């Protein structure tokens, strides 16, 4: 603004200096006053223009700052939204992974429950389905707890469901014992005879014969009972059943 005013002042000064005293009268007070007013107007106009430019620049800068702040705020909101999306996805992935682990663990558990197991029966190794093991153990547990009717039903059901099971021999033997315990002596005899015929090499044959002899005694069939006890002492002389058979023979009179 000062640079623009100085030339006007300088020109005015030179003009005044160049006038001779003779010409000074040509300029009266009104003309001088108008010149000064014009100069002031020029100075004011120049100042107003600069202020307007400064105000415009300030407004533009303010707008740019406001726009930048809005953009930054918008970016921060978008970043926060994306973080929320990422966290949600991470939780979903973690949930899916947990569900997959639980799913495979459940399958593995089920497979283990259904996979055959190695068992030893009378000194021999067998691979047996777990359902068979469970059914046999349930019937045997009932027998062990002297729940003989329940045991007889359990062993009978087992033999119907699993006639070819490695537990068939044991189930038949204990079925005969359960029938004897419930005083169903005729069925006990038939069951033990079936056992002996199907498993002649079983170490439980002497006990099955002893049970047959005892059942015959209970049925008052002393003749066949003596024959059965004698067979035990002859075929299996070193067995515990042979000692019991000798004692029973001593009590049976012809």
Automatic annotation (TrEMBL):
Domain Outer membrane lipoprotein BamD-like: 130-253
Cellular component per GO, a single term: outer membrane-bounded periplasmic space
Domain YbgF trimerisation: 52-118
Coiled coil: 72-99
Signal peptide: 1-24
Pfam families named in the record: TolA_bind_tri, YfiO
Location within or outside the cell: Periplasm
InterPro entries assigned to the protein according to its UniProt record, in alphabetical order: BamD-like, CpoB, CpoB_C, TPR-like_helical_dom_sf, YbgF_tri
Presence of keyword Cell division: yes
Keyword Signal: yes
Gene Ontology biological-process entries: FtsZ-dependent cytokinesis; protein trimerization
Keywords: Cell cycle, Cell division, Coiled coil, Periplasm, Signal
Similarity comment text for this entry: Belongs to the CpoB family.
Known function: Mediates coordination of peptidoglycan synthesis and outer membrane constriction during cell division.
Classification via NCBIfam families: tol_pal_ybgF
Protein name per Swiss-Prot or TrEMBL: Cell division coordinator CpoB
Taxonomic source organism: Derxia gummosa DSM 723
Gene: ybgF
